[in-house]
Amino acid sequence: MRKIHLILCLILVVSLLAGCAGTPVVYYTNCTCPAADQATVQTPVTQETEPETPAVENPLKTGLCISTSVKKSASAAAGAEGKADYDVTMVAVTVDDNGVIRDCIIDGIATSVKFDADGNITTDLTVVPQTKNELGDKYGMVAYGKAIAEWDAQAAALADFAVGKTVEELKSGAVSETGYAPEGSDLASSATIYLGGYVAAIEKAVANAKHLGAQSGDTLKTAVNTKIGSSKPATAEGAGNAQLDVDMVVLTMKGDTITSCVLDSVQAKVAFDAAGAITTDVTAAVKTKNELGENYGMVAWGGAIAEWDAQAAAFAAYVTGKTPAEVSGIAVNEGTKATDADLSAGCTIAIGGFQSLIAKAVQ
User: Fold this and answer.
1) Contacts of residue 51, Cβ cutoff 8 Å, sequence gap at least 6
2) Cross-strand pairs, 249
3) Strands 101-115 and 240-254
4) Would the N or C end of the chain have less CB density within 10 A of its end CB?
5) Can you give the pLDDT at residue 214?
6) What's 139's DSSP letter?
7) b/e string for 230-252 if b means 16 or more Cβ within 10 A?
8) CB 307 within 8 A of CB 294
9) What is the Cα–Cα distance from 65 to 58, expressed in whole angstroms?
10) Contact 12, 31 (CB under 8 A)
11) How far apart are CA 167 and CA 314, in angstroms?
12) What are the phi and psi torsion angles at 203 (to 5°)?
């Protein structure tokens, strides 16, 4: 009986082999060969795998720093206005994996919101503060301070000096113990302003830098939008608020395509009472929304799906790989919130300001 089983199984195997050669296959369904005597025929299984994402050649990290000080603010006094004084430094960088800075842009804002001893704001809140690079010659360092060059040119000289250096090389070569360029150096011949704060901002931008898609050869661009219109006077019922809002985008681009995007924002607030006395600790650090993270409070107090920094990062990731024209064309509702399901899944805040920043960066 065992021999009959073996013969039947051999016939099955031969039939299968013949079928592979194009001969009709005979299937025997009554083969009950003992397990120890059966040959197991395995059919190859083809598994579909997702294609690997091509690695970025010569990747660069993209970084941003917005540093804000209000320490020069002053309360109103008899016969003198008070002011909320804002000194903002902004630095964008690309940096390679060896810590070498490949591109650098430096900008700044110097502005104020004034108020009197009755708590009334005396500054025109409809005026939009310009950055120092936007002001150019109108900043007035040459015309009124007899500087060797305007602020934007001096900041550009430092930015150019930073390219090709690590942070440590920059710190050792750009500034002396005084915070100014070393006397007699090439940098001192083109940048006589105090550089210590700008070098510190470059260092922070490098520390903040992340791999977001940029690569060697990409062009670094920035744009800044500002306003003071959220300021309000003090009343008997509540404190006044002098507020500077700064929104910034950093882009890297390959041709017309965005290869990386970073967004950040700062709300610099100085409170004062109905007598024009400042009630804010002006020595405290003014953090950006990215630095505040969950402490910004959109989730805890507003029930948002995610905090501002996460939503801004979701928008930045969504526009990476798109052209600025495509970003401008993202559909929004009346509140400038995205109607695209993929984008709104991670970003439910208004994106109109983000869109305008990107459009401005490529003008």
Assistant:
1) none
2) 223, 263
3) unpaired
4) N
5) 98
6) G
7) ebebbeeeebbbbbbbbbbbbbb
8) yes
9) 23
10) yes
11) 29
12) -60, -40
Tokens of 46: 């083809």
Contact (Cβ atoms closer than 8 angstroms) between residue 226 and residue 248: no
Distance in angstroms (rounded) separating the CA atoms of residues 205 and 220: 14
pTM as predicted: 0.84
The residue type found at 117 is A
CB distance 233 to 211 below 8 Å: no
Average pLDDT over residues 245-264: 98
105/156 Cα distance (integer angstroms): 7
Strand (E) positions, the chain?
A: 59-69, 82-95, 101-115, 210-215, 219-227, 240-254, 257-272
Q: What is the pLDDT of residues 117-135, one digit of tens each?
A: 999 999 999 999 999 999 9
Sign (positive/negative) of CA torsion 179, 181, 182, 183?
negative
Among residues 133, 134, 66, 60, the alpha carbon closest in space to that of 103 is found at 60
Cβ atoms of 180 and 194 closer than 8 Å = yes
Average pLDDT estimate for 46-56? 47
Give start and end residues of each alpha helix (H) in the chain. 2-20, 132-135, 141-145, 151-162, 167-174, 196-208, 289-292, 298-302, 308-319, 324-328, 341-344, 352-361
CA 95 to CA 101: how far, in whole Å?
4
CA distance 336 to 137: 35
Residue 355 to residue 329: CA distance in whole angstroms: 9
Helices within 57-174 (DSSP H only):
132-135, 141-145, 151-162, 167-174
